Amino acid sequence: MANQKTDPGSGLSREPKTKNKIIYAVVVAILSAVALLTGRYSMTEESQQNQDVTVADAEFQVHVIDVGQGDSILVCADGETMLIDTAESSAGTKILDYLDSQNITDLDYAVATHMHADHIGSFQKVFTQIKPAHVIEPVYQDSLTPTTKTYERYLDTIEQTGAEYQSLKAGDSFTLGNAQITVLAPVTEKASSLNNTSLVLRVQYDDIVCLFTGDMEVQEEKTILGNLENLGLLKATFLKAGHHGSDTSSGEDFLAQVQPEYVAVSCGVNNKYGHPVQSTLDHLAVWTDQVYITAQQGDIIFYYDKDTKSCNITTSGKES
Ligand SMILES: [Zn+2]
Questions:
Q1: Which of 56, 126, 221, 312 has the fewest beta carbons under 10 Å from its own?
Q2: Residue 5 C-alpha to ligand 1 middle, in angstroms?
Q3: What is the pLDDT of residue 184?
Q4: What is d(CA 203, CA 138) in angstroms, rounded to the nearest whole number?
Q5: What pTM was estimated for this model as a whole?
């Protein structure tokens, strides 16, 4: 499943995937012929090297944890770690077990994309066990501040952990290892629904870009598209589809800029919302056949090896 190096900054002119593969095959064939004739280069060894890269070897990893209906995503870059969201309260044990399986005892960043319970539900359970150095949330207007117990526990936990606490908006940035993280949304503090306050993070690592979109809906996608400075930043190798694959998100105009090669959808088995919605899957299928869904495939791990410039994706599978 090794994929070619991608060029995140090359604008809108992505070639159809099959054409790329044909060109690549021709180049490989020519190189192989030259190498065999000169005896200086072995494509077989090079190909083998690509296939030998494992998750553990990869400097950059994204783990979309199978947490049922909600989001919780671990991003690791050069040994630094960020957990984006903590799903519902019922998912806390799963998240802690998963972090334990990755030998994670503390975190550099805890991100709350927005204040809904399927994104901050296990915030207290996870972060009283595993301390984050920083907590990041979006800016949003006071009238949207939740009055829920979940939100009270969220605030209590931030105070208990003593983490540095920041509200970010479009244009802000920070680093995770050698990954450069840019906030693309919220563009303003005026979003009228919590979903559209979602922090949208663009993570660039070496030659690849990953986009994490929380529960952003089409309205906020349009706001991002209207912020012209963002347009060159949207093209992404990996996309965490917005709002669990709902038809409120992943609009065609937005996807036409993102042009994802790999997509992960985080949602629960037989969830009451019908996520992911078929029309959304159809929109995604225009761009890629590499769409992975936690409800069907379990934990989804996307990883990138800097030396071989190869992207891979693997899944845990579901227990029957
Ligand atoms: Zn959600």
A1: 56
A2: 31
A3: 95
A4: 16
A5: 0.84
Q: For residue 163, give both structure tokens.
A: 């983490």
CA of 56 to the centre of ligand 1 (A): 29
Q: Look at the block and give the residue holding tokens 């944890």.
A: 65
Domain membership of residue 266 (yes or no) is yes
CATH of the domain at 253: 3.60.15.10
Q: How far is the CA of 240 from the centre of ligand 1 (A)?
A: 12
Low pLDDT (below 50) residues in the chain: 1-13, 15-24, 27-28, 31-50
Q: How far is the CA of 191 from the centre of ligand 1 (A)?
A: 16
- Domain membership of residue 43 (yes or no) is no
CA of 100 to the centre of ligand 1 (A): 24
- pLDDT at residue 58, rounded to an integer: 92
State in Å: Cα 207 to ligand 1 middle.
Answer: 29
Q: Establish if 78 belongs to a structural domain.
A: yes
Task: Supply the range of the domain harboring residue 168.
Answer: 60-315
